[in-house]
Each structure stands twice: as structure tokens, then as C-alpha cells.
UniProtKB/TrEMBL annotation:
Gene3D superfamilies: 3.40.630.30. This is Alpha-tubulin N-acetyltransferase. CDD domains: NAT_SF (cd04301). Residues 2-186 form the N-acetyltransferase domain. PROSITE patterns: GNAT_ATAT. It holds the Pfam family Acetyltransf_16. It is an enzyme of class 2 (transferase). Residues 190-226 are annotated as: Disordered. One of its GO terms (biological process) is regulation of microtubule cytoskeleton organization.
Length: 226
């Protein structure tokens, strides 16, 4: 858990808050002076959690910072706190990205505004307590997303296990980038039309089977999750 020199309770009217590029909780109500104070405190909270997440992943720099969030209109951070104990427990950063992805048949698709899981961290002392699921479910409800329709940026083995355990996601579609997506991501499965495309499909099916067999061991710089 993470505690701060200031009282977090005024920022958390509820255990999970949503923060966008204005760096204010979605529940915030106040004047300009209060807004500036809340923004400064939220920046410190986001930066602290981002550093802890990066440390857990053994990254050289954090994926999530207040500065990055401020400059990203299409990203959102959900933050979980124990309001009674006045400590912050974790974060989940999501957003939309324009991606070029391979479908189940190895054909390249341009996917505008693809739902993306970008960073997921629960403090080590609160892992395996159901809080990760609670945070993830809150995000899905607010964004109106389905797990199978989400691309995941460089997931850890823990996150892959989390998605398998809670949502039954196992069979991945091999990609040339760092994103992982699952069978069912594409609504319209375009069948290959010629022999070359069929061969391409068979190659990708073999890669997919190999990928499923290694359970994501080839992935690096992954997000950290409980």
C-alpha cells in the first residue's frame, strides 16, 4: 500500500476513481484553488504508483506518469484506494489506439480506436485478495468494454493468468508488435480467398499454437498485476 503526506480521503469519495487528462477525480467538485490543489495531489499519487509498477516490472522508466496522462486525451487511469485506511492500493491505465493487427488468418487489419490495456498494478501486500478483479470489472463497466475485445500491451505472465482465470481467455492471435489479443477480437472473420492466403493462415495457426503452449514466456517489459 502507498500512503502520502496529505489526506487522500477528499480525493476518494469512493474506493475507485477515474482520472483523465485533467488529472482530477471524476467525482471532484470544487473551485479553481481546490482544483489546483487536487491536481497536484493526484499527480503525486499517479507518479508514485507508476514508479512502483515500473519497479515491479524491472523497467527503466514508468509506463504511467501524470505528465503522460495530461497529454493523452484518449487515456484513462483508474485508481483503487482503501479509503478507511487512507492508502492507495493500485492502478489500471487504459486507452484507445490505432493499431495494425493480424487477424486469425494472418491478414493485416487496421483497427482504429482499439481498446487497450496499458498498465495494471496492485500493491504486493494486497495481491490475491480480489481487488484486481474489482478494479478491472469497474473499468469494463465504465468503458463498456468486453475483455475479449481488448488488446493488451506487453502483458506479464500474471496478467495472462488473470485473464485466463477470470475471463477464460487463452487462445491468442500472434502479432508482430508487443500487443496481445485473443481469438474473438475480430467480429468479422474474413476467410482467405486463395491458396497463398490459406498457407498464410496455416502458418499463423502453427505460431498461435506455439504461443499458447509457451503461455506468453516470450513477452518482455510486461505489466504487473495481482
Amino acid at each position: 500500500m502507498v500512503d502520502f503526506r496529505f489526506d487522500i480521503k477528499p480525493l476518494f469519495c469512493q474506493p475507485i476513481i477515474k482520472v483523465t487528462s485533467n488529472l482530477l477525480p471524476h467525482t471532484f467538485r470544487g473551485d479553481r484553488r481546490q482544483s489546483l490543489d487536487a491536481t497536484a495531489k493526484m499527480s503525486e499519487i499517479i507518479d508514485s504508483l507508476g514508479l512502483l509498477s515500473a519497479k515491479a516490472q524491472k523497467l527503466t522508466k514508468p509506463v504511467t506518469t501524470a505528465q503522460r496522462l495530461r497529454s493523452s486525451e484518449n487515456q484513462v487511469v483508474y485508481i483503487l484506494a482503501d479509503v478507511d485506511k487512507r492508502v492507495v492500493l493500485g492502478l489500471l491505465k487504459v486507452g484507445t489506439k490505432d493499431l495494425y493487427l493480424f487477424d486469425e488468418f494472418g491478414q493485416t487489419r487496421k483497427v482504429p480506436n482499439a481498446p487497450s490495456i496499458l498498465d495494471f498494478y496492485i500493491h504486493e501486500s494486497y495481491q490475491r485478495s480480489g481487488l484486481g478483479k474489482e478494479l478491472f470489472e469497474t473499468m469494463l463497466s465504465n468503458e463498456d468494454w468486453k475483455p475479449i475485445k481488448c488488446s493488451v500491451d506487453r502483458p506479464s505472465d500474471k496478467l495472462l493468468g488473470f485473464l485466463k482465470k477470470h475471463y477464460g481467455l487463452v487462445r491468442t492471435i500472434p502479432q508482430a508488435n508487443n500487443f496481445v489479443l485473443y481469438e474473438g477480437f475480430f467480429d468479422d472473420k474474413q476467410q482467405p480467398e486463395n491458396h497463398d492466403q490459406n498457407q498464410n493462415h496455416q502458418i499463423y495457426r502453427k505460431k498461435q499454437q506455439q504461443s499458447n503452449g509457451t503461455a506468453g514466456m516470450h513477452l518482455t517489459n510486461s505489466t504487473h498485476l495481482s
